[in-house]
Amino acid sequence: MESLGLLHLYYGDGKGKTTAAMGLALRALGSGKRVVIVQFLKGGQSGEIPLLEQLGAVVYRGKAGQKFVFQMNEAEKAATRDLQNKNLAAALAQPCDMLVLDEAGSTKDTMELIRIIDRLYNSLINPNFERDHGTLEQVLAVTLEDLTEFSWEDYLSEEMYEEALETYVDKLTTNVAGLENAAVTEEMEEKRERRRKVTVVTPEMQEKAHTYVELNYGITYLTEAEEKRMNYLMCRDIHSDCSLYFTEGILKNPAKRNYQYEYAKRLKNKNIWLYHDKHRIVKQNISELTETLRKSLVLRSESQTVFSDRGRVVPSRLWRVGRSKEARIFEQELKGDASDFVVDVLIDASGSQMSRQGEVAIQAYIISEALSNVDIPHRVMSFCTFWDYTILHRFRKYDDPRSENENIFNYVTSSNNRDGLAIRTAGYDLLQREEEKKIMIILSDGRPYDVIVNRPNAKNPTPYRGKAAVTDTGMEVRRLRNLDVSVLGVFAGEEKDLDTEKKIFGKDFAYIRDITKFSRIVGKYLTKQLEIDE
To answer: Is 166 exposed, middle or buried (0-12, 13-18, 19+ CB in 10 A)?
Structure first.
């Protein structure tokens, strides 16, 4: 695969732009890379330049004593422009691994800066860009409709509020599917507190949203009839205006190889990189959790001989007949069953998990690998909510081989989360299993939150946030426990949300600050469940 370069753009009124660029240059030089630096509006003494030149950097600068642009007359500007063009041409002729253009953005004409960046990108980073994607003019002529295949990842987050959503819905109505790009600010938060409003959308917009979900999350693995049935069974009460979407992810079943597909690939690689960075700790955790589970299963599978009123005669007990009320002259062998377990692993994939994405994927992978090692059937899924769709991303099915555990690294975080609906839906499938002992492990941050966008004639339920969302999630956990499903919450969030996690899971939740202790804490809970006699 061709390796492309990266373009870093440091801009703004504050200090630190040149410092950041020179720091990157220093790091490159220290790694044996070739560095070329062009300083367009700087010609005076600067402490870092001699040192960088000693380390091997090639530096092109303006003349000493050079004026600011606003101080120059037209002749001086022309002379400066001529010098800068020569320096840039000389720099581009130099073979290098890193090119620093200091003060390249000092222009009042935005298009001029865009053209400079375009030329540099096409000549230095991806010479095939124009051939594959068109000229700058063609790229800039892209319409909002064309952009619908690109990621909305950076525009929709847990902190997106109703006022910003109205703009999004308006664009969706007129432009196939809009991209809400208003910055979330404190002012928006204040407005949100003052005005609780639920947006109602048309059926046409709903259909467009379904297409958009398919483009960004992959094709569903359910038939239309199966999807309608699950929506009918699960989307009730506070979730009555919601929909479910079942997928194995955009990397497995893409509707189109768009920007979101490439974004998901990058995040997968990032997850895998973190795994390799911590592989010793991860493998140790897998080994310890596997051994813990194996010991518990061995104890459970051991046969036990008991005296009974039927079975094989024990001659030495025949004297009891007619002489004792506890005659029991027979014995039976009770065989243990270590295969009567099934586990569901459910992962919160909302945008609030983005900073912890790799760590959460590793935690799920540790659990899945250990369960596979002891042949306990288990399923692994993540959940998030986009618009009125709660997306359930299945990484492996209950009886899949161990090789499918690698799919967990496809874990991607985005948008919001309807924990209660996800738990209800996952629990429904778990309860259909024949195994007697059922366990659900939920990796979440204790922050159920969803933006409400309602369908026509909807009942406008209470917005899914705060107390209403916590109460609903806790109720679904308790409902499963009442149906003899053991539910463990593994807290993967910030300490300020611990109280919420306790309200949802009660005493059966684990807070793991140090991943080296992960197997010990989770193993203790699973062992407890394996050793409980029903």
So the answer is: middle
Token duo for residue 49: 């330049």
Mean pLDDT of 293-301: 70
Q: Quick one: tokens of 34? A: 């070739």
Q: Pairing state of beta strands 437-444 and 453-454?
A: unpaired
- What token pair was written down for 361? 């994927």
pLDDT tens digits, 444-465: 888 888 765 555 555 555 678 8
Supply the pLDDT for residue 438: 92
**Looking at residue 122, what DSSP letter applies?**
I
Q: Which residues contact 84 (CB under 8 A, 6 or more apart)?
A: 40, 62
Rounded to whole angstroms, the Cα distance separating 431 from 436 reads 10
Dihedral over alpha carbons 179, 185, 188, 192 (to 10 degrees): 100
CB 183 within 8 A of CB 156: no
Q: What is the pLDDT of residue 458?
A: 58
Query: Residues 278, 362: contact at Cβ < 8 Å?
Result: yes
Token couple for 150: 């690109």
The neighbouring-strand residues paired with 386 are 389
Q: How far is CA 5 from CA 124, 151, 253, 262, 485, in A?
A: 8, 21, 28, 16, 51
Cβ atoms 418, 242 nearer than 8 A: yes
Decide: 99 and 124 in contact? Cβ < 8 Å: yes
Q: What is the band of 183 on the pLDDT scale with cuts at 50, 70, 90? A: very low
Least confident of 123-127, 358-362, 410-414: 123-127
**Are 127 and 92 in contact, with CB atoms under 8 Å apart?**
no
Phi-psi region of 38 (alpha: psi -120 to 50; beta: other; left: phi over 0): beta
Dist CA 150 CA 424 (whole Å): 31
Nearest to residue 270, comparing CAs of 411, 80, 404, 420?
411
Q: pLDDT tens, 340-377? A: 889 999 999 988 888 889 999 999 999 999 999 989 99
What confidence score (pLDDT) does residue 461 get? Answer: 54
Whether residue 24 has pLDDT greater than 50 = yes
Check residue 1 and give its pLDDT: 44
**Rounded Cα–Cα distance for residues 414 and 416 (Å):** 7
Instruction: Label each residue of 123-177 as H, E or C.
Output: HHHCCCHHHHHCCHHHHHCCCCCHHHHCCCCCCCCCCCCHHHHHHHHHHHHHCCC
State the burial class of residue 434 (Cβ atoms within 10 Å of its Cβ: 0-12, 13-18, 19+). Answer: exposed
C-alpha 362/C-alpha 356 separation (Å) is: 10
**Mean pLDDT of the chain, nearest integer:** 78
